[in-house]
Fold:
Amino acid sequence: MTRLGFDYCMKITYEMEVGQCHYTMKCIPQSTRCQRVENIKIEAVPANKWQKGKDSFGNLTAYGSVDFPHSVFLFHVTGTVETGIRKFDEYKEESIIGNYKYPHGLVVPGEGLRAYHAALKEMMPSGGTAYEKGIYFMHRLHQDFTYEKNVTYINTTAEETWAERKGVCQDYAHILIALCRLENIPARYVAGMLEGEGLSHAWVEILTPDGWCALDATNDVEVTDSHIKINVGRDAADCMINRGIIIGGGGQTQEISVSVSRL
Amino acid sequence: MYDLDLLEHTDAVNELLARYGVKFGIYKNKTFKEQLFPFDAIPRVIGKKEFEYLERGLKQRVLALNLFLKDIYSDKKIVKDKVIPEEFIFISSGYLAECEGVMPVKGIYSHISGIDLVQGKDKNWYILEDNLRVPSGASYPMIARELCRRSSPMTFENVHLEDNRNYAQLLRKTMDYVNVGGHTVILTPGRYNAAYFEHSYLAEKTGAHLVNGSELQVKDDILYYVNSNGGLERVGAVYRRISDEYLDPMNFNPESLIGIPHIYDVFRKGNVAIINAPGNGVADDKGIYYFVPKMIKYYLGEEPVLQNAPTYLPFYREDMEYVLEHFDDLVLKDVAEAGGYGVVFGNSLSDEEKKRFIECLKNEPRRFIAQEVIDFLDIDILEDNSAVPRKADLRAFVLMADEPMVWKSGLTRFSRNPDSFIVNSSQGGGFKDTWVLSQ
Structure:
């Protein structure tokens, strides 16, 4: 087992004061069969009251509103996570599993992805298990796709990014999800953190008879003890770590820093 | 037959309706146009016995639809028991994953249901569609009755009619039943909504506050009305006349400017009732419509009192074969469209169009339903002082408090064009009052 310390901080600085903002943060990891989360500390600036909740996918939420003028908004979460406990995560979402089986949102396959799936199916050894197929898709995708920043955006669909053959972790995850769902393997998006990276990360969980198996196509690995899962959903839009709206004008700078280190 | 004094007053009633602002707004070519909703003075009359039959069927249907919604957003027993294929739920555009595991106050999802029916030439009534999101239309026969009584009191002297002006009481009872403490408000997107007249009229008649999004505010998981002094007054029930998508930019469409940030989080915690509950679109989806008779049997263990129009689901192979064979006799409906759009009569297509349509149907069988064209019983409307027959439907309103209540009236809509079967108000038809006899 491994003990990781993490620090997630989002800071928005406004050029002019804003009168009101509303936010929903999904940046609090929770304990599962695969990770044990402890010592969570949350700091918000302005230091107003926020509410705790859970969304329909089972993720923890922290949400609230600031209804007085402020020029800085900050949300800061720290904690420790034990990882590497177990490989497969518990399957307990039976009543909502259909959400992870059908095309939705950013993961609706078009002609390009359908053709890619058909080509992979040709080459894939027949009779494989869901786990073997998932691993196969991940390896192939890792070879057929190039990591490149600033060519895709948060709203880029799986089909669009596949047409370019390049993108970032979110795009790898979306394409792998599309391939698995076309193969009738339930697959979901995971937003998380990775040791040594300054940004949040994304990968995929596929459903196997042993539970959820987590595949990181960007790095071509099954998740390791360096990964901390934050939240899950059908696609990146469900898993936005921070969502907010502000009432008021002017420019703003948003800084997000993520750090994960071994304790 | 039409020896009604009322008919002499048609123009007077229409003028009054115009003065009261009884209008229907439509968007055409992206511009908003308001048009009068023409009133036809010949009432549709439904006998006491016949309405009792409709009432039984409507109550049963709305009970089953409510149980379906409760089941779909929790255990999905009806899917596990293979009565409805799973994909019809999850691919439906009305299904909202955000509603999973969220229980509305007292488990009621569809507080106000608008059920559209037609009567065939065989005198049988058929259900055309269920409207469980924000069905509109009750205000039109309400105010029409009021104005008719004023213009022609003698018309009403000798007929034994159910008074339909009690809709406001039924609605108030429905809203009060789920109110968790505090004000009841009617939330309108504002003046440029097709049904704005109705929002203001229902607020006036029920005594609820008519508010827009900016007058409501969430603080610490409680919803408040911001009064004119800037003070916060708690709200316990919101009859919202805006769609799910625009209700809460923090939980649904983030671009929404008319919604209330975090209102859905308040609802999730059970601290406010939202009327109707978000997520109902999964039950009035045209694809799910096919399964409503099965739902009635499944949840209530009863035979359906009211029948659907005979419907085929190309998703099933036998049905697809039937549809291809009888294409010219059927009407095809795109399950994603509403308001009379996406409706195609098989026999109206050219060979080329038909070929293209069938290709589309084969590629996406889940997207369409096919129905037998019902031979509607025409009803008369007045045109240039003579009665002419036109197609018409009936939107019945069922309100759900501790038990379902059917409003003893309804909105009868007719098509202006003698050849058209489409009576939707967004396509320029008119309306009639619906008289339910009390003896």
Observations:
- Chain A has a mean pLDDT of 95.
